[in-house]
Amino acid sequence: MNAMKTPLFLVVLSILLMSGTCRKDESCPDEAHPGLTISNQSNTRIRFQFYWNYPDTAIGDYNPKNDGTDGLSPGERFTRGAGPRSCWESVFAAGRMEWIYIFNADTVERLDWNLVRQTGRGLLERRQLDLSYLKQNNFTITYQ
């Protein structure tokens, strides 16, 4: 009876392993970029947020101080993934453009978020992103 369980166990295990195989987004090229790096080369600790509301330039609802990190200190880098089985080429396909907003971390941590949104205090830079920009910069956004 034990001999019967082993083959059944292997069949079930094989099915589970095959069903968990990742299928890559078909719009991702072979040399796709699953990660996008933000590099802080300034003397200021920063926080950043992608706001997917292009062409609107308003600061979005989401406060970057709530991202679960301590922000990026001078000289630090952070790599953000495009999502499961995806790539940044797919995210920015068909001419899509988005914004990355870079904030002074100390300011956004000290002030009420509605004040930051209304006045722009703490906003250091708003940078437009598209696939051409990312390719030209090797999928790295550098704040200096």
What's the SSE blueprint?
Layout: H1 2-19, E1 35-40, E2 46-51, E3 77-81, H2 88-91, E4 98-104, H3 105-110, H4 113-119, E5 123-129, H5 131-136, E6 140-143
Parallel strand pairs: 1-6
Antiparallel strand pairs: 1-3, 2-4, 4-5
Q: Mean pLDDT, as a whole number?
A: 86
Q: In which range does the helix fraction lie?
A: 25-40%
Number of domains: 1
Beta strand %:
15-25%
Distance between the termini: 69 Å
Secondary-structure-derived class: alpha+beta
**Largest sheet report:** 3 strands, mixed
Q: Quickly count the helices.
A: 5
Instruction: Give the low-pLDDT segments.
Output: 16-23
Supply Rg. 21 Å
Characteristics:
144 residues, three-stranded mixed β-sheet, three-stranded antiparallel β-sheet, 5 helices, 28% helix, 24% strand, globular
Task: Characterise this structure.
The model is unreliable at 16-23 (pLDDT under 50). Helix content is 28%, strand content 24%. The protein contains 5 helices and 6 strands. The protein has one domain. With 144 residues, it is an alpha+beta fold. It has a 3-stranded mixed beta sheet with strand order 3-1-6, with no helix packed on it. Strands 2-4-5 form a 3-stranded antiparallel beta sheet.
Write a brief caption for the model.
This protein is an alpha+beta fold and 144 residues long. It has one domain (25-143). The chain contains five helices and six strands.
